[in-house]
Amino acid sequence: MKENKTDALSIPLWDGGVRRSALTQRIGTARSTAFERRLIHRMWEALGQPRVGIELWDGYTVAVGSPNLRINDRGALWRLLVNPDLHFGDDYSVGRLDVDGPLETFLNEIYRTLPEDFPIGGVLGAGFISWLYRARENSLAGSRHNIAHHYDIGNDFYKLWLCDELVYTCAYYATPQLTLAEAQVAKMEHICRKLRLRPGETVVEAGCGWGALSRHMAKRYGVKVKAFNISEEQVREARSRAKAEGLDGQVEFVLDDYRNIGGSFDAFVSVGMLEHVGVNHYRNLGAVIDRVLARNGRGLVHSIGKNYAGPMNPWIEKRIFPGAYPPTLREMMEIFEPHHFSVLDVENLRLHYARTLEHWLEAFETRTDQVRAMFDEHFVRAWRLYLAGSIASFESGSLQLFQVLFTRQDNNEVPWTRTHLYPGEE
Amino acid sequence: MKENKTDALSIPLWDGGVRRSALTQRIGTARSTAFERRLIHRMWEALGQPRVGIELWDGYTVAVGSPNLRINDRGALWRLLVNPDLHFGDDYSVGRLDVDGPLETFLNEIYRTLPEDFPIGGVLGAGFISWLYRARENSLAGSRHNIAHHYDIGNDFYKLWLCDELVYTCAYYATPQLTLAEAQVAKMEHICRKLRLRPGETVVEAGCGWGALSRHMAKRYGVKVKAFNISEEQVREARSRAKAEGLDGQVEFVLDDYRNIGGSFDAFVSVGMLEHVGVNHYRNLGAVIDRVLARNGRGLVHSIGKNYAGPMNPWIEKRIFPGAYPPTLREMMEIFEPHHFSVLDVENLRLHYARTLEHWLEAFETRTDQVRAMFDEHFVRAWRLYLAGSIASFESGSLQLFQVLFTRQDNNEVPWTRTHLYPGEE
Predict the structure, then answer these.
(1) Contact criterion met (CB below 8 Å) for B205 and B228
(2) Chain A: residue nearest B343 by CA?
(3) Which residues from B are below 8 Å from A176, CB to CB?
(4) For the complex shown, is ipTM > 0.90?
(5) Which strand (E) or helix (H) includes residue B300?
(6) Over the stretch B327-346, which tens digit does the pLDDT of each residue have?
(7) For chain B, what is the radius of gyration of the CA atoms?
(8) E strands, B161-245, where?
(9) Beta bridge partners of B253
(10) A186 → chain B, closest CA residue
(11) In angstroms, rounded to a whole number, what is the distance separating the alpha carbons of residues B221 and B281?
């Protein structure tokens, strides 16, 4: 198990992880040249002159500001110049880059000033670099591999910093004061209200995580749920929790791909799976929904998205979420339009995800000793960067969170208004 | 003026309106042939065997049902076989077709059973027919012409059957019991809440009709409004109403195209204009919004739409709304994505438009004598068909009504939830 974990998140360095010789080390930390200083200064300008500090290994200051980025050796500098999107993450993880001050503030400032036409391959980068790091294809086997990479690294790890219910998607802060656990319950309630679940109805969930929503729907709304997931670790935990709560007759967890969903259901729900589906499979997903949704059934898709088409941050895609892609609303319509589904409601919960991630990062930071013991320091730094970077992405608006509610187009049993989503003080 | 009206809505028949000779009339009503009966029966089957009656001029019954379509002469039959989408409207208008029973029920049943692959040119139709009736281009001059066709046919006419505030877009029935006038006010309130207008802010409205929303925003929210419209009749009425209410310092009505909007505004709103913009101009519209919207400004676009791309009903496009096109959500994103606008909220008010149209048709039917005196019987029948057909389109789901709220992507001054849209009993 341990080996599997290390494998999934190991960070292969450009030198193949070979221990560097004394000579290499000496070269790597010899005084920076005027040329190198000019190049990194040019990169800072190309980034839109963010109000952050940048300092080289020999103490040379490229820019003064706070938080402050420290580039700890010559190799890290050149790697940053060639492909900052990818190498920033790797070199931060292994400590060749450091940030004094809050990491999310640093990243937020970078995202804030980043010009739209910033060359994705960096100042020296070439087009083939993005080609190298294009999103991994989500075939049936590819999806299993991609999902295992992230979700099978160990339930014990996620239990350290997610809420007790193990919900690993954007929460809903019905009021800003809610705790993480309360906001996750509020999210599940919000979704159930949108779907207007009635006792005795059947629901299919595509990509169910550790099963919190499935169990919530069964317990609170008296529906029968069939939930699909291709992460073995998650399904095992989901089944055991359902059994412990006496829900195993009401909620069935199926270790299978969403493409194999069959049957007929009154509601279809998918929270945080679409990011892993891949745009070229949206039409398939729509066909699956069309196949299984009852005549007056309701569907909800909840997904990270973007305002304009573009790939996931390549470091996140490579190290954290292989195969992940946040779609635009236009791209999401590829699920609905071919089958004439009627979109009833789109809600953007962007700032709720920033808040959720803040709560996760906060919890993560209090447990870094345990994470380090499970994995290593590189892992701790990589996950810190991933969580902080995600906060910055949602706060700066480079990522969105869309909840899309839909039905078949001839379903006239839809609520007259959305008032039922806001029941007031209960 | 009268001449202009007749011109705008005259219906040129296939025989050029020439009075038919006795011989032509005799041929036109001679007993239907077995071949004609087979053809119209085949069309009824191609329509998905709707539960309506169809009867020929000689009493021959093609299908038994209610409501019942009467085809009153041979020419009408052949025109229907060649291009039902276009000729049904024209021939109903001049009385060569009749429907016993409620027209909207008849049309609803047709839309309900209509197969997706129904040949748009009818049973005998050819592809070139759709080419002939493609939507008219909305260039600056083209738009003026297209808008005049519909909106300049006389304020007196619209006053007969719209509410007193002259609102000619989908109302919002916050509760199903509202009257038309109440629901139009509720719609304006709903939009103002979505835009979170604050006293002293500036608003630009693109396509303002007779100015009801502009005046509502000024009166109730204390904002300063600049409203654009290219219909002369509407702008004249809007100005006079604003003046009568003492709002002429606060609301400015500009007789000009949305493409010429300049300045900077805290909110952009457009209700029922997008249908006339044309898909190939959405990018321009987005550029206009991007040019004039303040940094933390909010925008709302309210438009008829569709679940899948396809042209407007050709008769409506030709006789009622030249240049009109209801977009899909995917197509609407062409306004927002190029400028990285962030879509916050999409609400589908489809059934509210069906209800609105029912109220309009009801009022229209009580005033047909006055409409007939203003125009003629053909006009009355054409508008009855347009209103009834629109009810059926919204009820069957072949048309949608989308309200899209958006801001710039880095605007974090957005409300935490949508609770403020549902203030409860006031």
Answers:
(1) yes
(2) A348
(3) 416
(4) no
(5) strand B293-305
(6) 999 999 999 999 999 999 99
(7) 23
(8) 202-206, 224-229
(9) B227
(10) B417
(11) 31
